[in-house]
Specification:
Blueprint: E1 3-5, H1 9-14, E2 18-19, E3 27-28, H2 56-70, E4 77-79, H3 84-92, H4 94-103, H5 108-131, E5 135-139, H6 150-170, E6 175-178, H7 187-191, E7 197-199, H8 206-211, E8 218-220, H9 225-231, H10 234-244, E9 251-252, H11 262-272, H12 283-286, H13 297-304, E10 306-318, E11 324-330, E12 334-340, E13 359-365, E14 372-382, H14 391-407, H15 415-430, H16 435-449, H17 458-466, H18 472-494
Parallel strand pairs: 1-4, 4-5, 5-6, 6-7, 7-8, 8-9, 12-14
Antiparallel strand pairs: 2-3, 10-11, 10-13, 11-12, 13-14
């Protein structure tokens, strides 16, 4: 699960001093070089422009590169450090800001500073998601009980964290939070959040966290980075990863900090990282205990806007010279339309995956407005090549799809009809189409729609209910009747 780390990207937009030590990695000096010397200077601060300011564009470019290279195969986590409270500590200077909170907690400039930090941090989440990250995360390092009291957390940090979650969830994003140190004393408050997951520091009792906040949220962590990962063997890291992570139960193993030896990092990733985006969207994962954000598959889908489902292609429409509109009949969402960007290009990941009557698993991202959604992944399992062996088979399959499309409302789940269409297409793929099979399909469709009559042929009931039947029915019935006559004649001669 690659991640593009923001570190102090947002803070360095305000104070961009970088220290380059003779040895070791370069570090931002924004943590010890305050941007403002007093709260009176807060009025001069403005929220960041996430497309231009500081090193944020570098982060966004990294996300875009990852998304283009492996975005259809591996989950990309966009780290949007720092959270509003921690960012305020960086801008004011952590010691000075904590003294401000203790000496004048009602000072309105404190709220103004946190508001600027909140808007800046939110902008990074939006930009990272737009660049291609599948989910985001943040670190509010100074918010934990190791730095401030639970009471101070409730007053200054929690309101902005909760607000952040509501705003990103409203835009179809889901995010994970990390707070450094032992967070046991604030886990009750954390458990009420709408975050999709929590990244535990190694100081936190993981067993206790699983029994409290872990009941309703996904947990990440909490392997000791400075002890086990930095000094342990590869086998020890592997064993700890297997013990800590259990995706089916809603927990993923990972170190609590990014600095670790390369070999052990590879070992940890091999045993803990989800290998595909479906690890975060599969039914198995979604049915594990979750918080309000992803407690139920449908609720998760509406907030995170990513939907895996079984589907069959019933129609294709050209959108541009390079893209297609794909009409699907799905098991869980009924009739939907998706845009397959670049699908007509030879090197597209969708090349060879999109044709009439193909069936398999898809992942689509729901549109914020309208009914034209974005197609993200396709895994075809039913190619149904037999439907192209002759014109009658293709015409039969097309009629089944046309009739079904005219009979259902868009985005209304109809699992019974999905099963009927699949059985009809599979039957015609294996057998020559006949009038008897056509009438059986129409009878079953009328029955499932609740419009069948014992004393009346199904196609009359369907015509009255739908207004008309697909125009291809006449030609199809004529061809099938001739085919049946030829079959009967051949059987007679054989006798």
């Amino acid at each position: 699960m690659p991640s593009s780390r923001a570190a102090c990207q947002t803070g360095c937009r305000f104070a961009s001093t970088i220290s380059w030590p003779p040895r070791g990695r370069p570090e931002s000096a924004c943590g010890n070089t305050a941007r403002i010397r007093s709260l009176e200077e807060v009025g001069g601060l403005k929220p960041v422009d996430s497309t231009r300011d500081g090193r944020i564009p570098v982060l966004l470019e990294a996300v875009r590169i990852l998304a283009k290279a492996v975005g259809s195969e591996i989950s990309i986590r966009g780290n949007c450090d720092q959270g509003p409270f921690s960012l305020a500590c960086l801008l004011r200077g952590s010691e000075d800001f904590l003294m401000d909170l203790a000496e004048e907690p009602e000072n309105p400039d404190i709220t103004r500073l946190l508001e600027v930090c909140h808007q800046s941090h939110l902008a990074v989440h939006r930009a990272v998601a737009a660049a291609g990250a599948h989910f985001t995360s943040l670190g509010d390092s100074f918010s934990g009980p190791d730095v401030i009291s639970p009471a101070m957390f409730e007053q200054f940090s929690r309101p902005f964290e909760e607000r952040l979650v509501r705003e990103v969830a409203a835009e179809g994003l889901f995010t994970v939070i990390h707070i450094c140190g032992d967070t046991t004393r604030i886990q009750e408050s954390l458990g009420a959040y709408d975050f999709c997951g929590f990244e535990l520091d190694y100081k936190t009792n993981a067993a206790l966290a699983k029994s409290t906040v872990g009941k309703n949220h996904v947990l990440f962590g909490n392997i000791d980075p400075s002890g086990l990962v930095a000094r342990g063997t590869a086998d020890q890291v592997r064993a700890a990863s297997l013990k800590s992570g259990n995706p089916e139960a809603g927990s993923f193993s990972m170190p609590a900090a990014p600095s670790r030896p390369a070999r052990r990092r590879r070992t940890s990733m091999r045993w803990s990282a989800p290998r595909t985006t479906s690890a975060f969207t599969s039914d198995r994962w979604l049915h594990a205990p979750r918080g309000n954000c992803i407690a139920k598959p449908r609720e998760f889908s509406e907030r995170a806007a990513v939907h895996p489902t079984q589907a069959t292609i019933i129609r294709l429409t050209r959108l541009t010279d390079s893209s297609l509109i794909v009409h699907w009949f799905t098991e869980e969402h009924g009739l939907i339309k998706t845009v397959a960007k670049g699908a007509r290009r030879p090197k597209s990941p969708f090349a060879g995956q999109l044709d009439l009557f193909f069936g398999g698993e898809i992942v689509f991202q729901r549109a914020k407005r309208g009914e034209l959604h974005a197609l993200r992944e396709v895994s075809i399992r039913h190619w149904r090549e037999g439907l192209r062996r002759n014109y009658s088979s293709t015409l039969f399959a097309a009629y089944c799809c046309q009739l079904l499309e005219s009979a259902v409302e868009p985005e209304h789940p109809e699992p019974g009809l999905y099963d009927l269409l699949g059985r009809a297409l599979d039957h015609v793929e294996r057998n020559e189409p006949g009038a008897r099979a056509l009438r059986h399909y129409e009878r079953e469709l009328a029955r499932l729609l609740g419009i069948s009559h014992d004393q009346r042929q199904a196609h009359f009931s369907l015509r009255d209910a739908l207004g008309s039947l697909p125009s291809t029915r006449g030609e199809l019935l004529e061809r099938l009747s001739k085919s049946d006559d030829l079959s009967s004649s051949a059987e007679g001669k054989q006798r």
